[in-house]
UniProtKB/TrEMBL annotation:
Cell location: Nucleus, Nucleolus
Pfam families: Nop (PF01798), NOP5NT (PF08156)
Protein name: Nop domain-containing protein
Record-linked InterPro entries: Helix_hairpin_bin_sf, Nop56/Nop58, NOP58/56_N, Nop_C, Nop_dom, Nop_dom_sf, NOSIC
Region of interest (Disordered), ranges: 431-513
Keywords: Nucleus, Ribosome biogenesis
Family: Belongs to the NOP5/NOP56 family.
Length: 513
């Protein structure tokens, strides 16, 4: 019986075939279980679906209805899990195909999954049936399973079913005991705490410069005595600092190994510390895999983001990803670009690490090389080693289509010098000379045009100068006429205010009268 839900059966009501006797296939979901085929003894009772429940009310009536024809036992749990997983996906396993070929010749097979029935019919050419009567028949067989199969007790069914169901649940959820990111979150938090403690302890210890001066002064100076109790506390403090530094180195190695196991591609891109901080900030690797590249880019800069949105300023371009080596090697203008590209590649690598089955870092190394090539094209400089790799940058050989794979020989023979190509060189040189001559002609024509334009402009200037001089050389008669006109205009202007005064006085007299 497949574990497929009943929604997959809707719309499928296959009619029973009368030409072949009906056979039912049954699968047990237990470790000692296997494939079982029951033969239907009384096909007439299948017409009345409601009475099938009464047929399987007792073991005796069930034996009269169906009979065990064949049973193939699973060898171990892994084989049972593989068979069940295949049936959940709707495909028969290799063992099931062999079992059906051996025991279902010229017979009709009743199945609980219509999709599985179609595949069996196509690949094995076995007629399959699925309808409501088949489902009721399978329910009845399941209720009397321990009575129909000898050697299978009811007390064994529950633990076997529970064990196999747990295995199937782990398979569905892609659970891996190695991918435990809780220890990474705790390790990176403890590493940060150790750094703070070491810095606090280091404040009680002399700096290197003061220590050198103290050693020089101790040769000359008398100094003061140090009691044994003070010396004990000083030594204990030094021992604690040394032990913390040693433990920090061990913790970093542990974090590095866990990151290479759980998130190898993310580690190859951004390094162990930055990758661990990203996982810790998100809560888990699975939660981090659900974030888009834009969120990964500013993860850790939430305060700056909300402050920028509130004050309507520019939003931050990077968060925790700023400490990655690729971003650190970029210049000021190129940092946002590289951070954006790195976040996009990191989002893909995180999803591959969290949801993929491969355990290598090939995807991360490939993306890291692409990012370094882009940064090299932007800034034009060589970059450092890969993060999380002690081997450094791998060599990239130039592709040669004539070179054989795995050997230094060439597929095609080496090319010899072609003397006939010399004529092409001569023609090419002649072409270059012709181009130079054309350029010279164009320059000469341009110079001639400029000279003509300059002559025209000089002529125009001379004409303007003449027009300005002509008004000065006017006839004396014209000058006198102009002077007379000016005098008349001045007299009229002086007369007008007098006339206005007279008019005003006349108006006043009239008003008084």
């Amino acid at each position: 019986i497949s574990t497929t839900s009943t929604s997959a059966f809707e719309g499928h009501n296959w009619m029973l075939s009368s030409s072949h006797p009906l056979v039912i296939m049954l699968l047990l979901f237990e470790t000692p279980g296997g494939f079982a085929i029951f033969k239907v003894l009384d096909e007439g009772k299948l017409s009345n679906v409601e009475d099938l429940g009464n047929v399987f009310s007792s073991a005796e009536s069930a034996r009269k209805m169906v009979k065990l024809k064949a049973f193939d036992k699973f060898d171990n749990t892994s084989e049972a899990l593989e068979a069940v997983a295949k049936l959940v996906e709707g495909t028969p396993s290799k063992g099931l195909r062999k079992f059906l070929k051996a025991n279902c010749k010229d017979e009709t097979l009743a199945v609980a999954d219509s999709k599985l029935g179609n595949i069996i019919k196509e690949k094995l050419t076995i007629d399959c049936v699925h309808n409501n009567a088949v489902m009721e028949l399978l329910r009845g067989v399941r209720s009397q399973l321990s009575e129909l199969i000898s050697g299978l007790g009811e007390q064994d069914l529950a633990p076997m079913s529970l064990g196999l169901s747990h295995s199937l649940a782990r398979y569905k959820l892609k659970f891996s005991s190695d991918k435990v990111d809780t220890m990474i979150i705790q390790a990176i938090g403890l590493l940060d705490d150790l750094d703070k403690e070491l810095n606090t302890y280091a404040m009680r210890i002399l700096a290197d410069e003061v220590e050198a001066e103290l050693k020089e002064a101790s040769v000359i100076s008398m100094g003061t005595e140090v009691s044994d109790l003070d010396l004990i506390h000083i030594r204990e403090l030094c021992d604690q600092v040394l032990s913390l530094a040693e433990y920090r180195a061990q913790l970093y190695d542990y974090l590095k190994s866990r990151m290479n196991t759980i998130a190898p591609n993310l580690t190859a891109l951004v390094g162990e510390l930055v990758g661990a901080r990203l996982i810790s900030h998100s809560g888990s690797l699975l939660n981090l895999s659900k974030q888009p590249g834009s969120t990964v880019q500013i993860l850790g800069a939430e305060k700056a983001l909300f402050r920028a949105l509130k004050t309507k300023h520019n939003t931050p371009k990077y968060g925790l990803i700023f400490h990655a080596s690729v971003v650190g090697q970029a210049g000021g203008k190129n940092k946002p670009r590289i951070a954006r590209s790195l976040a996009a590649k990191a989002a893909l690598s995180i999803r591959f690490d969290a949801l993929g089955d491969a355990g290598d870092n090939s995807m991360g190394v490939e993306n890291r090389l692409k990012l370094e090539a882009r940064l090299r094209s932007l800034e034009g400089k060589d970059l450092g080693r890969l993060a999380g790799s002690a081997k450094g940058k791998p060599k990239i050989e130039v592709y040669n289509k004539d070179k054989k794979m795995g050997s230094g020989g060439l597929i095609a023979p080496a090319k010899t010098y072609n003397t006939a190509a010399d004529s092409l060189l001569v023609s090419a040189e002649n072409g270059v000379k012709e181009k130079k001559d054309k350029k010279k002609k164009k320059k000469a024509e341009a110079e001639e045009e400029e000279e003509a334009k300059s002559e025209e402009s000089s002529k125009k200037k001379k004409k303007k100068a003449k027009t300005e001089v002509e008004p000065e050389v006017e006839e004396p008669a014209k000058k006198e006429k102009k002077k007379k006109k000016k005098r008349k205009h001045e007299e009229e202007e002086t007369e007008e205010p007098a006339k206005k005064k007279e008019k005003k006085e006349k108006k006043k007299k009239k008003s008084e009268a």
